[in-house]
């Protein structure tokens, strides 16, 4: 069965601001793609990204990219970029992980709320 948990892991910036989320694959399948949408509940601004890799952007120094999230793996994934500093705002992230590229195959979603 596909299953994962997500939690807020911090806010980073370079040319824009993004939230880092920690994903833990608690299920029995490998995830190969992600759809991540973050909504700023205070401004109603929505930012999203879809990808066939799991990127952890490290400030201005580059990204650590992984092709998949295998059972038992823990990965930090960087969210979509906001053009403003969202600190102090109520944010809602909806994460969908899928077993195949292009957000296809078996997919499962989770939503979390956080305030950077």
Relevant terms:
mainly beta; 116 residues; four-stranded antiparallel sheet; 0% helix; Immunoglobulin-like; 60% strand; single chain
Distance between the termini: 32 Å
Q: Main β-sheet: number of strands, strand sense, barrel status?
A: 4 strands, antiparallel
| Share of β-strand residues | over 45%
Radius of gyration from the alpha-carbon trace, in angstroms: 13 Å
Write up this protein.
The termini are far apart. This protein has no helices and nine strands. A hairpin with a 3-residue loop joins strand 8 and strand 9. The mean pLDDT is 97. It has a single domain, classed as Immunoglobulin-like. It has 116 residues and is mainly β.
Q: Can you give me a brief rundown of this structure?
A:
The protein is mainly beta and 116 residues long. It has strands at 4-14, 16-25, 33-40, 45-51, 54-57, 63-66, 74-78, 91-100, 104-114. It has one domain (4-106): Immunoglobulin-like, CATH 2.60.40.
Lay out the secondary structure.
Elements: E1 4-14, E2 16-25, E3 33-40, E4 45-51, E5 54-57, E6 63-66, E7 74-78, E8 91-100, E9 104-114
Antiparallel strand pairs: 1-2, 2-7, 3-4, 3-8, 5-6, 8-9
